[in-house]
Amino acid sequence: MNEKVELLMERLDVTRKGAERIAGIVETGADILRTEGFTALTKRRIAKRLGISDGNVSYYFPTRESLWKGVIEYELKTYYERHYRNINATNDPDARFDEFVRIWFREYEDRELRIFFAQLLAFAEVSEFVAQQRDEIYQSFYDETQSRIHDLDPTMSEQELQTRSTLVMAMLEGLHAVTAFRPDLMSSSTGFQELLVSQVKAIAYGRVT
Asked: What pTM does this model have?
């Protein structure tokens, strides 16, 4: 938690004690979100788990939405630390795209991540605020997909870039459903993974439309 506390102190301009309290709140909230869902993610539930007053939580997160946003940001930061911290800094566009696709593969074995996104996507259907958070997250994924595909062929039109990026995201995102009932595809079948990389790259290069 020390690294997170240091970052919170710097980003939010709070004392160490305040940063430690915020870290405890969002980590506890993340656990509640993954195990019980957004409806259980309340200041009262977090306060009870931490043995503090509701007002202590409200001091840092005055509204329900601010609490949800704090927990979502914590989960995303954890996600990027886990899957993007050690990415290769290669300048080769083809290698960078391969790496991008394989990061998605690793995500399928990340159970906590799958649960978080399942909760996010489900509750976005009934909460406009969570839907907005979902859209911002997926826009960032889309932007990263576009960036990696653009580097493969910088001369393509904007419309073609959007088409290829959308198709690649649809294919990779669809794997969440497939691997839920066929986890062996990703965990034990390297042949399937290589075939998938080949197919995704064919879309990215415009060989499949």
From this structure: 0.85
